[in-house]
User: What shape does this take?
Amino acid sequence: MASPSASTARGSERLLWDCATVGRSIENDRASARSRLEGELGEPVTQLLLATLREAEPSTPHEEHLWRAARDSAA
Assistant: This one.
C-alpha cells in the first residue's frame, strides 16, 4: 500500500495536470477554428483544406455577406 504522502503527491500532480489541461482547453476555445487548424496542421494544409471545403457559390445570405467581406479584404 502506498504511503499517504506518496498518494498526496500523486494527487497533487494529477490536479496540476488537470488544471493545465483545462487551461489549454479554455485557450483553444478562444481561438478561431482557423487558428486552431493552423496550429495543428500548419498554414499551407489549412488553406488547402478550407479551399477544398468551400462551396462554388454561397448558399445563404450570410454566406454571401462573408464572401463579399473576404473579397473586399483580399483586394
